[in-house]
Amino acid sequence: MIDSNIPAHVAIIMDGNGRWAKERGKKRSEGHLEGSKTLKKISQHILSKGVKQLSVFAFSTENFKRDKEEVDYLMNLIIKYFKKEADTFNKNNIKVVISGRKDNLRDDVIEAINYIQNYTKQNTGGILNICLNYGGSEEIIDASKKIAKLYKEDKIDLNTLNKESFYKYLYNNLKPIDLMIRTSGELRVSNFMLYQMAYSEFYFTDKYFPDFDEGEFDKAIDEYLKRTRRFGGV
Ligand code: IPE
Ligand code: IPE
Ligand code: MG
Known about the structure:
The protein is α/β, with parallel strands linked by helices and 234 residues long. The protein has helices at residues 17-23, 28-48, 68-91, 107-119, 136-152, 214-226, and strands at residues 9-13, 53-60, 94-99, 126-134, 179-182, 201-204. Strands 3-4-2-1-5-6 form a six-stranded parallel sheet, sandwiched between helices. Strand 3, helix 4 and strand 4 (126-134) form a beta-alpha-beta unit. Helix 1 (17-23) crosses helix 2, helix 2 runs parallel beside helix 3 and helix 3 runs parallel beside helix 4 (107-119). The protein is globular and about 60 Å long. The two termini are 30 Å apart. The structure holds 3-methylbut-3-enyl trihydrogen diphosphate (2 copies) and magnesium ion. One 3-methylbut-3-enyl trihydrogen diphosphate binds at residues 13-15, 57-60, 63, 186, 188, 190.
């Protein structure tokens, strides 16, 4: 039975892979690999609960500040993940979309992005939005540029622009985020989906992302279902 109050759009800042590895005397890369396995498990679980859209933060525009070795490892992991999981996404009827800037990304990463989006585009069972080379401020700037271009070409009536219609110009036309989860104990947003989280409920957990399993997600949902959302009303 799916509860009608189940959030339509859940977003997760998948943080703490490095600390998970460090605590076990492993390399940071092993934490990222474990995190990718966790994503596979929980994304299926979350979308099977009636959540329609799941956004996950995989790599921020700011993450390019890390060592080349770590950045390369993450990019290779993402390519492998898309190739390896493509059939599972189709089997589970999950459509994969990617949000983020394409500049700065290697050609083989862009190829993998195009491949997975195209391979899963007919699926209707839920959307997995993977944020890659993504920044929330950048997304709003890029949307503004799209609108400015359309205006210049006389293709948009600015009177039609409002809070709802602005979503059409973001990287993917998703819903507002109902529940935002951040793992690893950090209490910040780190430039994640700023526009979409205007009225999100926040859930912070000390668990590192590799340990954020189905049971941990269920705790987050239980907590969410107890909240009263007021959207400025009384
Ligand atoms: C999150 O884990 C994954 C990415 C940012 C790519 P981190 O790599 O940030 O792990 P910590 O925060 O250093 O533990
Ligand atoms: C946010 O985590 C980005 C991702 C989870 C991909 P970071 O680890 O990069 O964030 P900060 O630097 O701690 O704010
Ligand atoms: Mg981190």
